Amino acid sequence: MCHTNGGIRMAGKVPKLTTPRAVKTQNTKDGIIKAATDILKKKGYAYLTVSNICAVAGISNGTFFYHFKTKEELLTYYTHEKFAEFRQNHGFEAAVKDLPFDKKIIEFYSYWADYMVSMGLDFFSNFYSTSNYSLDIRLWSNQGPASMWQYPTECLVEAQHEGLLMDGISVPECQEILATIMKGVAFDWCLSKAAFDMHTRICKIMGPYLDTVIKARRSGGGL
Questions:
Q1: How far apart are CA 44 and CA 50, in angstroms?
Q2: Among 100, 96, 98, 94, CA closest to 110
Q3: What pLDDT digit, counting tens, does each position of 85-101 carry?
Q4: Sign of the C-alpha dihedral computed for residues 65, 70, 73 and 77 taken in this order
Q5: Residue 48's closest CA among 30, 117, 57, 121?
Q6: pLDDT tens digits, residue range 175-189?
Q7: Is 1.10.357 the CATH classification of the domain at 71-213?
Q8: C-alpha distances in angstroms, 195 versus 133, 174, 198?
Q9: Which class is 17-68 in CATH?
C-alpha cells in the first residue's frame, strides 16, 4: 500500500517552548535556519557558506558555531526536525500502525516525497547537490533518534530480530540502498521539474528491492 494525499489526518501540534531563554535560543536558531534556506532557494548550494548565512541572519560567526558545527549539521538538523514535525502533523503513526515493516518503510519515504512537495521544487533542486554532505547517510546514520534515517533502520532491525529478513542481510547496507533509491527518485524529480509522481516511482523501485531481502510471506499477505 502506497501513500496517497487523500485522507491525511492532522495530529497534535508540536508543543511550543515556554521559557524566555528557550524561546530566545530557538528564535536565534530559527533565524539561522531561515537565512540558510533562503540562500539555498535563491542562490543555490554554492552560495551556502557560514559567512553568507551569518550576514543574512545578522549574527556573528561565533553565534552560528554555538548552534551548529557546520552548515551540513544545520541542514541535517533542519530536514530531520521539520520532516519529523511534518510526519506528526500529517498522521504518519496512524497511517503505518497496522502495516508490515516493508510497507512502513515505503510509507515513510512516501511521506518524505510529500514533504519535498510541501517545501517546493526550488529548495530541493538546490538541496540535492553532490556538495551537500548532509545527504550522505554514512555520515549521519549513527546520530541517534533524531536522525531522519532512524525509523526505517528500526523497522529493518525489528524485522531481522523477528526472522523476517533473508539470512546474511546487512541492515546498514540495506538502509544505504533504500536511501540511495530515495535520493535517485528525488534527484530525478528535481531534474524533471516535478514531472512525475514520486509515490508511484518509490513503490515501483523500493518495493521490488525490499522483496529481495524478505523471507517468504506468510499466508494472508502479511509478514
A1: 14
A2: 96
A3: 999 999 999 999 999 99
A4: positive
A5: 57
A6: 999 999 999 999 999
A7: yes
A8: 26, 28, 9
A9: mainly alpha
Position 136 scores a pLDDT of 81
Q: Judge contact between 96 and 108, C-beta under 8 A.
A: yes
Position with higher pLDDT, 214 vs 144: 214
Confidence of residue 57 (pLDDT cuts 50, 70, 90): very high
Say what the pLDDT of residue 146 is. 44
Question: Is residue 165 exposed (0-12), middle (13-18) or buried (19+ Cβ within 10 Å)?
Answer: buried
The sign of the dihedral angle between the CA atoms of 121, 124, 126, 128 is: negative
Could you tell me the three cell numbers for 20? 524566555
CA distance 173 to 189: 24
Residues of the chain with CATH 1.10.10.60: 17-68
| Residues 61 and 54: beta-carbon distance below 8 Å | yes
pTM above 0.90, yes or no: no
